[in-house]
Amino acid sequence: MLSVHHKGQNIYNLAKKIFPYCRSITGGGVRCTFADLKEYIETGTNAQLHIHEIPSGTPVFDWTVPKEWRIQEAYIEDEAGNRIVDMQENNLHVMGYSTHVDRWVDLDELKEYIYTERNQPNVIPYVTSYYKERYGFCMSECQKDTLAHGKYHMYIDSELFDGVLNYAEAVIPGEMEQEIFFSTYICHPSMANNECSGPALAAELIRFVASMERRKYTYRFIFIPETIGSISYMSTEDHLAHMKATMLAGFNLSCVGDDRAYSIVETRYADTLADRVLKNVLRYHVDDYTTYSFLERGSDERQYNAPGIDLPVVCYCRSKFGEYPEYHTSADDMTLVSPEGFQGSYEVMTQVIQTLEANEKYQMMVLGEPQLGKRGLYPTVSQKGSYDGIAAMVDFIAYADGKHDLIEISERIGVSVNQLIPIIRRLKEAELLRVV
After folding, report:
1. DSSP letter (8 states) at residue 310
2. Among 337, 367, 387, 415, fewest CB within 10 Å belongs to which?
3. For the chain, what is the total number of helices (H) and then of strands (E)?
4. What is the pLDDT of residue 4?
């Protein structure tokens, strides 16, 4: 089992801080979130989070960057002035990207603009309409059933205008131009696991990478609105060409804060280094995990693996999106995530980073089995059981032929990369091992 340390608490605290903002694919809620992430990432590190913007109307592959959405207020009130729903109490009460409305209607017409989740009558659903102008409100089915006949005031103070789509990026250089890529999204309002968890974990991972004494690879982290953000990012500033030329492995972070499960959504053919390294780490560092094929995709791994894009990006989750009942509802609140859940994700992803940094093809520099005893690497008294303590070293040596990388050897001999790293260091110090 993974242990609990303070990093999980730090990530939880950051997720809690950004939870209240009314985010969407554009707008002020996104920029407020970026401001908090930037402050957290840059305090005490040399990492920098840069905020970028793409104008509304910009063609991006087969899409167009939409107008920016600004919302100030949204509520329904009855004839006595009682507010039935109010986005100030829960920002899920307003349909995302709702247009302006200021109308009095009767109950039957009001219900045409109310969205509920009938199979979960006690929750407020998350509903959006980005690419067709409309307005609406969300409430629980139970609340809808209590509405009395009469007149109701629908009021939404919002506007769609030519503005910008924002994304944020942090690049931490290494010794090589080859990159390890992380992507997460900032486009949902107040939901904890399916919104705040990914950016909060990514921010802590940036701090981890920035603190590494030696980095072989360059690390790129992006924070984007889901779907339109990944499409916009790859479509502008020659990002796609750069990604194709440099990306070694990529990870989409989604729903990473609960403590129920561990999950991977594979790349299209499940044959990339990203697939291999995440599965290897999950195999050795958690009790159990679930593998989902690309046919069960749902987040930005869709865009990164699309034909013609073909980037090696898997999706990492605790409970996968769409697989837990609180998903896309008001029940996805801060009680669903925990410091322990975040700690588990932090340890998995930092181990992924360390495994990639260590992953090489290694070759022994002597013919036959080396005499380990004269180098202090093997017991000098031979009896039953004396071999057990160095079995991992001897098995590693047997497969260090320069043809297979460290992850392959780990899978073959049943020993985690984390356990093999100190063995490699000792063999290098004894001048028995080299990198091919």
Report:
1. -
2. 367
3. 13, 19
4. 45
Which residue bears the tokens 């322990």? 340
**Beta-strand pair 247-253/263-265:** unpaired
Confirm if 164 and 52 have CB atoms less than 8 A apart: no
Residue-wise pLDDT for 340-395, tens only, equals: 999 999 999 999 999 999 999 999 999 999 999 899 998 665 544 445 568 999 99
Checking DSSP bridges between strand 263-265 and strand 313-317, what pairing results, if any?
antiparallel
90 by Cβ neighbours in 10 Å (0-12 / 13-18 / 19+) ranks as middle
> Do the beta carbons of residue 274 and residue 314 sit within 8 Å?
yes
3-state SS of 50-90 is EEEEEECCCEECCEECCCEEEEEEEEEEECCCCEEEECCCC
What does the chain come to in residues? 436
Residue with token string 């990026």? 169
Taking residue 31's Cβ as centre, other Cβ atoms within 10 Å add up to: 17
